[in-house]
Amino acid sequence: MEETVGEAFYLEIGSEEIPAGYIQPALAAMAAQMTRFLDEHRIAHGEPFTTGTPRRLVLSIPDVAPAQEACTIEVVGPPRQAGFDAEGRPTKAAEGFARGQGVRVEDITFKQTPKGEYLCVLKEETGLPTRELLEKMLPDFIAHIPFPKSMRWGGLSVTFTRPVFFIAAMLGKTVLDFTYGDIQSSNRSFGHRFLSPQWLTIAGYQSHKEALKQHYVIVDTAERKALVKQGIEDAAKGVGGRILEDEELLEEVTHLVEFPQPLVGEFEEKFLALPPELLITVIKKHQRYFAITGQDGNLLRYFVTVANTKPRDFSVVAAGNARVVRARLEDARFYYEEDQKVRLEDRAEQLKQVVFHSKLGTSWEKVERFTALAKWLGERLAPAHVETTLRAAYLCKADLVTGMVGEFPELQGVMGRAYARLQGEPEAVCQAIYEHYLPIRAGGEIPGSVEGSLLSLADKMDSIVGCFGVGLIPTGAADPFALRRQTLGIIRIILENPFRISLSKLIDQAIPLHASKMTEPKESVKQGVLEFFQGRLHHFLVSQEGFGPDVVDASLGIGIDDLVDVVARTRAVAAFKARPDFDALAVAFKRVVNIIKEPETTPVSPALLQSAAEQALLSALKDTEGVVEGCVGQSDYDGALEAMSRLKDFIDGFFDSVLVMDKDEALRRNRLALLTRIQSLFLKVADFKKIQTG
User: Fold this and answer.
1) What is the spatial distance between Cα 135 and Cα 210, in angstroms, rounded to a whole number?
2) How far does the chain reach from its first CA to its final CA, in angstroms?
3) Considering the domain 345-546 in this protein, what is its CATH number?
4) What span, in angstroms and rounded, lies between the C-alpha atoms of 566 and 576?
5) Of 184, 196, 247, 330, which sits with the fewest C-beta atoms within 10 Å of its C-beta?
6) 604 within 8 A of 618, measured Cβ to Cβ
7) Strand partners, 111
């Protein structure tokens, strides 16, 4: 049989300007959804490729089979006794089943199931043409591309993130025929909106990619990103500087343009007196421009912007950009100078008028709560830093009522640090004011100072406990108060310092501080917070640290109170599992825990140990317990597991020669007490029942 050669599938959706942040998630979803469709419909295919610009999303899949793979399907009908009588003659039920399946009664077979024997028909199902299947599904496929916000336009019932302008859809050289709204699919795409507004015929992705370049569209995201990066770097060199690296901004700008054209702008020297973070925020956040530094790392009065057109006069565009930047910098300078007229400590009480949350009170109340938490933490973890931590706690939210943060909310903490420095506060205080917000994103920078770490822990735990206390618990993907991020932040701060602190006791300290606000029972709040932490910790250890899920389950199964200790145990169990003899050891451990339904509370009586094997096991256990206790006390879990492993032969010997569930109750309970004691020893490190073997 001659092997069928597949054809390339190509889909390009052209639209009005798509927000930069929408593009990559949409492309990822398109690839996943189309792959799932092809797989579910038994259509062989190659690896999907996606790319996009602000005005088009592209999905290409090579070697898509022309039709579904044929298959044999099994259709189960009524029970045998309903289909055939006692003499084996078919009933109306059997005849109806055969007729419904398009077969003869003689073609019916029987299938044995847990519920008995049933009538069964095996049918050969031929594959439908891929083209036909795609034409039916593509309108629904486009409708279900996920965007944070979608819209309708022109009185149509269909939605997309922006009005759709064209749809190109092809399988090989064949146009896939369908409509979406009032758009008929075709084999045509469109050039750059301003530089080359004309239709282009598509023959295939590679040739189309080159054709688009001739019409001022760099459709390949990676290629366009490289051009932006090289262009801004060359522009910065032209004024004797270098680009302040910002991968996030580079990614965003790549998705803002189809034909990148970097150009340099400048502002007056006087603005360099403003804090660098403020300048960067204005240049980056509000204008999507790249800042330029000198060789010494200090900001220069230049910036690079990336246009989406090829201007006739670059100087005119640069001058226009400069005017916009200048206006924003003038606003910033005004607020900067005005804010300094009032000291931070005098602004702190203004927080009494700022609502943190309607259910959790004012920002002033929040400061009072996490200050108490920070004091408790500091006294246990870093007594020498308590005084500076408390000073930072008093000042750390004061910049929320400054004009600058009111205008540029993303500068909270940054401006607090800047104003604290201007007012002569100790550097430890200044840094803690900024750091207590960290990390501000998953995987982001954590506080580098002791004071900042303590304050960040306290602030975040206050928010988490407070939200759980008034029923503001994250559900599904919804997490409006970023509790998942804050929980992960606490985990990382504790682990990376490392801080040996009881998570349970920290929660116990936080709960009473919310007593007047709390609407949920205290015990359920504590349990809920602990379970929330366990979920985040599990995710962190698996996805970030690379431990196996079963190893993490085993480690977390005996508690998460001391996070540093949890990681030490997890690391030791992971190393232990990698041993060649682990499976044999695990079997011995599981034999112990599987036989114990309920722990036996009576102590082991040596007098009731009848066989040499159980006597030897008790003797070895006594020796091992002392070693394990010492190792656990030093968090030496490798040593503890090594000591436990030496019990294997004694455990095997015990089970080979002793009947645990003896008819004699005294003997039975004594043997269960011995096994319970071994189980208790194992549980000092992990719950071995949860570790996968084999």
Assistant:
1) 27
2) 41
3) 1.10.3210
4) 15
5) 247
6) yes
7) 118
Exposure string (b/e) for 595-618, b if CB count within 10 Å is 16 or more?
A: eeeeebeeebeeebbeeebbebbb
Q: How many residues does the chain have?
A: 694
Burial 57-70 (b: 16+ CB within 10 A, else e): bbbbbeebbbbbee
Q: Residue 110 forms beta bridges with which residues?
A: 119
pLDDT category of residue 632 using cuts at 50, 70 and 90:
very high
Ramachandran region, residue 546 (left: φ > 0; alpha: ψ -120 to 50; beta: rest): left
pLDDT in tens, 332-370: 999 999 999 999 999 999 999 999 999 999 999 999 999
SS3 (DSSP) at 98: helix
Q: Give the residue from 165, 160, 158 showing the smallest Cα distance to 55.
A: 165
User: Which pairs with CB-CB distance under 8 Å and at least 24 residues apart come from 440-445?
Assistant: 441/485, 442/485, 442/488, 443/544
- Mean pLDDT value of segment 209-232: 97
Q: State residue 1's pLDDT score.
A: 33
- Judged by average pLDDT, the poorest of 49-58, 526-535, 682-691 is 682-691
348: which 2 tokens?
């702190």
What's phi and psi for 39, nearest 5 deg?
A: -65, -45
Q: How many CB atoms lie within 10 A of CB 72?
A: 8
Residue pLDDT, tens place only, 412-428 = 999 999 999 999 999 99
Mean pLDDT on 569-586: 91
pLDDT band at 589 (very low <50, low <70, confident <90, very high): confident
What pLDDT, in 10s, does the model give residues 234-249? 999 999 999 999 999 9
Burial class (CB in 10 A: 0-12, 13-18, 19+), 563: buried
Closest C-alpha among 163, 164, 182, 172 to residue 202: 172
Given a contact cutoff of 8 angstroms between Cβ atoms, the answer to whether 30 and 145 are in contact is yes
Task: Identify the H or E element spanning 594.
Answer: helix 582-595
Give CA–CA dist 153/564, Å, rounded: 55
Cα(401)–Cα(364) distance, rounded to whole angstroms?
A: 12
Q: Is the pLDDT of residue 5 over 70?
A: no
The pLDDT tens digits for 362-377 are: 999 999 999 999 999 9
- Token readout for 185 is 């699919």
Choose which CATH entry (1.10.730.10, 3.60.150.10, 3.30.70.420, 3.40.50.720) describes domain 564-690: 1.10.730.10
CA distance 396 to 388: 12
Residues 6+ apart with CB under 8 A from 304: 232, 235, 236, 243, 262, 263, 264, 265, 289, 290, 292
Over residues 291-310, the mean pLDDT reads 94
CA 288 to each of CA 119, 216, 492: distance values in angstroms, whole numbers, following the listed order = 68, 22, 31
Q: How far apart are CA 159 and CA 152, in angstroms?
A: 5
Q: What is the mean pLDDT of residues 612-637?
A: 95
CB 193 within 8 A of CB 55: yes
* Beta strand extents in 107-225 (DSSP E only): 109-113, 116-125, 164-171, 174-175, 179-180, 183-184, 188-190, 199-201
Structure pTM? 0.80
Phi-psi region of 78 (alpha: psi -120 to 50; beta: other; left: phi over 0): beta
